């Protein structure tokens, strides 16, 4: 049996803390080291939950060094000991579809237990923000980001998109994003077949991944009800997408807006066969539906004070539209998307949790807990819903060997909870404390982060976004 001392040595080496135990002995004490005692550690990586009771977790330099029975890990020199009082420790939450615009939003995510986000509309300044968080200069979740959204001219084009209508423009835009430092691409609905093919070719050449909305091709008269989309949905499933976004978009493209249950089950089976993961973002359409049902009162619910005011100003036309939409029609659409999400799960499609936070009225941090509740209402068990916000995202992002578990060598990003998220997923959104990048944040610190999320600055956000749009070259 490997001794505890050897396990600690192996973990230290795995996390690049030191080259050997001899080196470790020569190092100065780590004043940021933590020993969190007496916690029950939840492992979400298997087919069923496993809880190791009464454990100690040793954290040093941003990594988990050891996890073992309470009392069996010696407190290192200079380390801080915290009594977890038999609370549940679980991996930090991941929101796989957000739109980050400014620093205060990051506090909102972390204050609700979200320790990692995937930003789905990158701009150059977000790379600097990502690096500042990684360096510990800003409190926030770890940021993974795509580049600017690649789209074609048409009904869904927006000012922050990079519009590419030809293969030449598409190749140039992909190269530009690569040169800026982006390694993940997001594609959108309006892309022509020619531009989309060029994006795929350039991505393969440069080693970049692709995610996003299913590209439909040029929207011509009669599409999709009288004639099919120019890019058939089924062909996209073999194109190497990391994830496909939005149950709503998949239903629109894959079923041509139809509501046939047998066709929906067949589509879910085909997606499962392909192996591509789906990010249903149920909460995104749920918010639209609730806006229609409440004639806009939903837009003023508690927490909306953390929304970026520049973006809410830009959403004014959208807000007005959804205040006047048919509540009955919106509810029927949402219920179908929810049922379809359950079909995807039943078919074996890997699901991840994303919220579209940062646009419309989707509150950073809090919305992920709403998404988990909606996934449970779609038929997922609480355990499966938690997996969609922990182990599934890191596996899909290729980080399963360093995130998503509380184990030696893994990043020290985890929550300590008073409640049981296996009974109520909402417990994950109100952590007693958390560790992010090896740093201890207690309840007072988390409350401070939630307060900091309200300190929004429309003028600064507008200046950043407009400057970034100006930096995005137009390609022809």
UniProtKB/TrEMBL annotation:
Domain (Amidohydrolase-related): residue spans on this chain: 339-425
Signal sequence region: 1-25
Keywords of the record: Hydrolase, Signal
Keyword Transcription: no
A Pfam short name: Amidohydro_1
InterPro entries, per database record: Amidohydro-rel, Metal-dep_hydrolase_composite, Metal_Hydrolase, Metallo-dep_Hydrolase
GO molecular function, one term: hydrolase activity, acting on carbon-nitrogen (but not peptide) bonds
Keyword Hydrolase: yes
Name by which UniProt lists this protein: Amidohydrolase family protein
Organism: Stakelama tenebrarum
